[in-house]
Amino acid sequence: MIETALTLFERYGFHGVSVNQIVNECGTSKGGFYHHFASKDELLFVIHDYFISYALTKAQEAIDSNQLPTEKMQKIITSFLKVFDLYKPHISVFYQESIYLKPQYVKAIKEKRQSYKQIIFAVIKEGIQTGEFRPELPVEITGMSILGMVNWSYKWYKKDGDKSIEEIADIYVDLILNSLLTDQAKQEWRFKDYFLKNN
């Protein structure tokens, strides 16, 4: 049902698609639709929730399974990029149609996005405290720059492009860690694999 709705929303827009069209296209009933979703608005919220929940889960896994801030940041950036490969239709539809969401759904989305943002800020703070990241970098501006840089990928990333999502993630990791790490930390052998190699 979600995949059908995504296709229809991309083609006709949120207001250009009725619940009848969704259920007819995917071969279910209106009762089936309303068993899963209270409204079309809730369906749009769930479309967003798919990718933000994935990003939050992966970020938390990075925090829980790594000790060093640099390792945490590398895992977070990599999983963040993969969102655009796994959920590109969800993201495209959400950004096109999110203005139609009702206030309660907007509030829930903002809360999850705030949680993700705070994870990024916390890792930057930790990296500064441990001496891995440059102390002169303002935490919030740095965090928002990372989020903005990676988020914009949904505008240009294509599955059939010249580079895979993994290759793009490696480029982002190189760019971001080269900006974050102190000169001394860049020389540490345990971080060397995070930087692109000359062929």
Total strands: the figure is 0
Number of helices: 11
The tally of domains stands at 2
Round the Cα radius of gyration to an integer and report it.
Answer: 20 Å
Structural class: mainly alpha
The CATH class of the largest domain is identified as Mainly Alpha
Assess the beta-strand content as a share of residues: under 5%
Q: What is the global morphology? A: elongated
Could you please describe the fold and organization of this structure?
Keywords: DNA-binding, Repressor. Pfam families: TetR_C_24 (PF17932), TetR_N (PF00440). It comes from Peribacillus glennii. InterPro entries: Homeodomain-like_sf, HTH-type_Tx_Regulator, HTH_TetR, KstR2_TetR_C, Tet_transcr_reg_TetR-rel_C_sf. Residues 1-55 form the HTH tetR-type domain. With 199 residues, this protein is mostly helical. It has two domains: 1-37, Homeodomain-like (Arc Repressor Mutant, subunit A), CATH 1.10.10.60; 39-194, Tetracycline Repressor, domain 2 (Orthogonal Bundle), CATH 1.10.357.10. The chain has eleven helices and no strands. Helix 1 crosses helix 6, helix 4 runs antiparallel to helix 5 and helix 7 crosses helix 8 (139-151). The longest helix is centred in the middle third of the chain and has 28 residues, at 103-130. The mean pLDDT is 90.
